[in-house]
Amino acid sequence: MVSTACNGDGMVQNCHGLLELEYEQTEDSDESYEKMLQDESLKEQYSHAQNACVSRLDPQGFYADMRTWGLDYGPTFANVCEVRNDRDGQSVGSVQIPDVMSWTPTGSDRPHIIHPGTLDAVFHLAFAAVKGGKYDPTTAMVPKSIDSVTISGCVPFQPGTKLPGYSKANKHGLHELVADIVMFDDHSNLPTIVIEGFLCAEIAGASSNNGGNNGVRSLSSKLSWRPALGLLDTEDLGFVLAQHNGRSELVEYLKLLQHWSPSMSVMEVVAGVGADGYLPSTVFNDSSFLSVLKTWDVTTTCGKETQKALLEEQGSPIAILDFTQGDTSDTPPKTYDLVVVSDISSYEPNLEQVIEHMCKVVEGGGTACILASGSILERTQHALEANHMEPTVLQNSEEAGAISAVSQEPSLIISKKPPGACKNATMNGVNGEDNLKHNVVLIQAADPTKAALEVASNLTQSLERHGYTTENFSWTSASDMISVAGKLVISLPEFQQPFLQDVDESDFKNLKKLLLETGKLFWVTALDDPSTAMIDGLTRTVRSEMPGLSLRVFHADGKPTASPTSAASLVDMMVKAFLWTGEDNEFHVKEGLLHVSRIEEDPVLNEEINGLLPGAAKAICSLPLKEVPCPVKLCVLSPGMLSSICLERDDTVEATLEPDYIEINVKATALNFREVLVAMGQMTDSKLGLDAADVVRRVGSSVTVYKVGDRVAMYGHGAHRTIHRSRASYCALISDGMSFEEAATIPTVYATAWNAMGRLAKVKKGQLILIHAAAGGVG
Fold first, then answer.
1. C-alpha distances out from residue 308 to 75, 232, 266, Å
2. Which of 38, 282, 342, 539 has its CA at a distance of 20 to 30 angstroms from the CA of residue 145?
């Protein structure tokens, strides 16, 4: 039993249960054989769950959603690092053991059996199992009871170790969730944590912690196009950021970088408090970075003297890291994909030393973004070069051509760290062998335009400069399509003339070969016509059904070859997109720059949808029943709180009426003791009411006993609603002298009494019967 007392109040019992200690079974005993069978059964269930769970969840997004329910987990407890589900009550995932300071008792080889941060994260897989499904939680849920928790004494405890496992969860009653969870040792592949009957209940009256978002759920998304940062040269980048200076330029660059690389580890280095008491602000504390923080893992660091002031200012966790001090630790420092410094001037006395230490925490292939001005700008640039970084200075518009010592706004330095080892790019095509990667096939339209011929010629020259050989084919020859199997193909039939909207049978066969048999297909369009979007839908569908194919689409403006300069620029962008080894498959040229797309949440549409959802605000309003504009049913918002009983919209009436069912307009329903138990949360159910009576409004196609207008009494689960339906065999005609109220009291109590007396007790005429509580419907 666990009890607590607060502020001198009496002891409050929080939980109670039984603790059992079991020893390992003797080898070759019946108990060990039984344990082996249990383990094999759990492993088989885990294997089935792995095959069924194909919907991948982003752990950061998962915990962000939990925060909107009112469950806010910090870094010590948010340890689910990988998770998938089937959106129907199953999930598989991994829990990473947190790195926390633990004291190891004398004589023991481990500090604990299991850390609370690990065990609590295991429970989170239950919520992941129902995430996105028909029982998707919308408010905070807390454990109510657990049937059993079995933890192996050999469960791993080393920080960073990942425990794989699965969970099965389902709705239990009105506002409860029950789950079973099993976690395994990744090395021995044996169950180490088995949780059965994990029962959670919604917190009565819980309010979502969504920052005043009124419970709006993330249901819709949009396609957002922004410049492809990794494919822009310095001149293009300067053009994109030309309208920004100083801190504004840094913010805009970070947004471009997040669009290009949505998943990054980031360190922001905050300057110290100024001599005048000025408190520096963090870049990522700006409201415009809310979408960025959903995908980036941002760590804010500062000196010890600044930490307290920043904590009071923004409340989020701040790490202490003083770059002015030498690294005395034997452990290599944690590295980040991006380091952001918005005010390097505060480190001026030790600038070179500080930059040296900052460069050490930049991951190979990572980036450092630093704002600097005046003489510090030049010193910073030299210090970065001295530490093997590759800095690029984006001059402000007022400083074009020279470094000004009197600039009002600092300049942005973007410094790349060379990767430790280059990754060899591989092809995802069906037949993409290495011996084919230097041969490119260009396919022209049957009657190409002059601009198309010019682009093909420039493409050939550009590809040859990159070490590729080229072949030119015409679309008209079916034999040419056979010869491109397994090769790298650039398709130009839709360059400046529509193609897909009028394909005949022969063209469609050739198109199938291009899509399914080439090693890599790069489809180019360059005209303002809605038909060019057809290739997007086609390639997205094919990629979804056959993930191994490499299909890329390149869209250019309607007049990309108006001048020799624009034509050369277009070919340059085409070659960049063709040779790009990343995962992007769709490229658009907009305003002379190469753009890529990302799927982002659409808050405007979410708000619109939320406004259309009945009861989205969970507010109860008083309204005469005759004025309710739609069918409704009885519900309980908070089990145990009878004041939360209300009516909500009933969507079941829109379903097709089954052949052997009848439907009635409910005039009367019966209140049984069972409904009281359900409403109080003492019985598990999600529907209220069993008996109803009224006239028939619809009959199923196979029903012959009843017709529209008949007066009937009905037995059917969930009868407390304005329109109800049930099997015709569960209904009975009402005599003219019986009211609807009287008729509604009969079906359940009559069937219960008849079952007890006739089928179970088998009473006979003349026997005496004692009925307790005879005033009730059954007694």
1. 19, 40, 21
2. 38
Do 461 and 577 touch, CB atoms closer than 8 A?
A: no
- Domain holding 75, by residue range, is 30-100+112-202
Q: Are 535 and 494 in contact (CB under 8 A)?
A: yes
Domain co-membership, 484 together with 535: yes
- Counting the structural domains of the chain, the total is 4
Residue 257, in any domain of the structure: yes
Phi, psi of 266 (to 5 degrees): -130, 135
Predicted TM-score (pTM) of this structure = 0.53
Mean pLDDT value across residues 451-478: 86
Q: Locate 386 and state its tokens.
A: 């001295």
Amino acid at the residue 311: L
- CA dist 201 and 207 (Å) reads 14
Does 135 map to a domain?
yes
Coil vs helix vs strand at 590: strand
Look up residue 24 and give its two tokens: 């390992």
Same domain (yes/no): 548, 638 = no
> Model confidence over 412-452: pLDDT tens digits?
999 999 986 444 433 444 434 444 457 899 998 888 888 88
Q: H or E element: which one contains 37? A: helix 30-52
Contact assessment for residue 613 and residue 619, using Cβ atoms and an 8 Å cutoff? no
Tell me what pLDDT residue 176 has.
Answer: 81
**Spatial CA neighbour of 391 closest among 357, 361, 355, 423:** 355
Q: Residue 259 belongs to what H/E stretch?
A: helix 246-260
CA-based nearest residue to 730, from 717, 745, 711, 720? 717
Torsion of CA 73, 79, 82, 86, to 10 degrees: -50
Q: In Å, how far from its chain's centre is CA 374?
A: 44
Q: How do residues 582-605 score in pLDDT, each as one tens digit?
A: 889 999 999 889 999 999 888 888
Residues 352 and 255 grouped into a single domain: yes
Q: Is residue 50 part of a domain?
A: yes
Amino acid found at 545: E
Q: Do 166 and 253 have their domain in common?
A: no
> What's the DSSP call for residue 721?
B
Q: In angstroms, how far is the first alpha carbon of the chain from the final one?
A: 39
Q: Is 440 left (phi over 0), alpha (psi -120 to 50) or beta?
A: beta
Residue 298 in 3-state DSSP? Answer: strand
Closest CA to 681 of 178, 14, 179, 172: 172
CATH at residue 565? 3.40.50.360
Q: Which residues pair with 555 in a beta bridge?
A: 525, 588
Residue pair 567/458 in contact by the 8 Å Cβ criterion: yes
Q: Is the dihedral of CA 319, 324, 329, 335 positive or negative?
A: positive
611's tokens: 């406004």
Does residue 227 carry a pLDDT above 70? yes
Task: Give backbone dihedrals phi and psi of 636, rounded to 5 degrees, phi first.
Answer: -125, 115
Tokens of 338: 């991006």
Secondary structure (3-state) at 624: coil
Please report, as a single letter, which amino acid is at residue 222: K
CA 67 – CA 243 distance, rounded (Å): 36
Cβ–Cβ < 8 Å for 473, 444: yes
At 510, is the secondary structure helix, strand, or coil? helix
Compute the CA torsion angle 155, 158, 161, 165 (nearest 10 deg). Answer: 20
Torsion region of 636: left, alpha or beta (phi above 0 gives left; psi -120 to 50 gives alpha): beta
CA distances from 658 to 550, 707, 722 (A): 47, 15, 19
